[in-house]
Amino acid sequence: MKKNISVLTDITAANTLLANGLRETFSEHHLLVLNVISASGAGKTTLLEETIEALGDEMSLAVIEGDPYTTIDSDRIEAAGVEAVQINTMGGCHLEANMIQKAIQQLDLTAFDLVIIENVGNLVCPSGWDLGEECKVVIAPITDGDDKPLKYPMAFQSAQAMVISKIDLEPYTRSQASVMAANALQINPELEIMPVSAYTGAGMEAWLAWIRRQVAKHKLKDK
Amino acid sequence: MKKNISVLTDITAANTLLANGLRETFSEHHLLVLNVISASGAGKTTLLEETIEALGDEMSLAVIEGDPYTTIDSDRIEAAGVEAVQINTMGGCHLEANMIQKAIQQLDLTAFDLVIIENVGNLVCPSGWDLGEECKVVIAPITDGDDKPLKYPMAFQSAQAMVISKIDLEPYTRSQASVMAANALQINPELEIMPVSAYTGAGMEAWLAWIRRQVAKHKLKDK
Q: ipTM score here?
């Protein structure tokens, strides 16, 4: 076990170095990059489809898709009308900065205001890997139970924003969005929390407004 | 990356050796061990609470709980009335055989018919780690989307049984249990698939009958 841990530390240190370089590159291109993290099946791709539909006319955006094997998600994103780069980790449980470095070679960075990275569906591993993003966003469905931030604190600690997804299903569960939010704030008092249903559209405006604010803040910072 | 992969191979090979030893020990004690795998928030603990309630009188069972940090789940299992051993991985994304070896030192193996290991909530990493179990069981909530077996095939490939959980919520989603089952069978044609709602009790009898069959089969095999 000791050997395992020390190797892992070396790898994440190298990853952070590379991620810092990516962050500089993104900043030079006035590009906001979000790293979206959640368990598998939290509704990341559906949220992104609706986000693209809503913001596609007012800003230029691209998506980098991380998946173990398939192109199901990047096919959906391309069908929604924006450029998508697929990274298949071949079973790997998270994205790393070197994968992002390769992926952005397929994008003209000067052409975009916003790049959203959809990480591999996993609430544990991706939190520890910096991808050069400006913000991490954690997505937690209300159907997963309102205790999730307490049980899997890593993603909630490292994120700046949290979307409580699938809130249209809240009445049919034993969980409450308000309790989930309180639990998340206990882990990270700075979290901006937005309950959203990508299906009904409830809460979407707050989420879109948050993205608009980040893009604007980022452009200002670059000047 | 190459270095990372070779170290990982060495570690999983050592893990498999240890797991094979554990399997022999379990077999000597006529003990059925199940390794339950799912994403975080799939309803593993709720399913186990109901399973304990239903089977507690007819067999003797214990639970080994894997969680990143908290004892929330083992507290719930103990409240349900059976012995629970907590393993906290301190952020680690899966259980390993050496952790099970330590955990069973706290159990009198001669006293049980069935030990259920509840793995860390993660649909990716736990699949690759043998814990000495007789069967892996994968839990996939219908609310996570019926495409999950195609997108995260590892857990479905390595399992002998699959519970489609939260089927009481099926009418409120865009997913169908029949489609999820067909997708899972595409990945693993041998899977025994059981749609269950631990809240309403729908499908619980099939799940309990499956466990009873495994326990009986295992006892027979030992003779």
A: 0.91
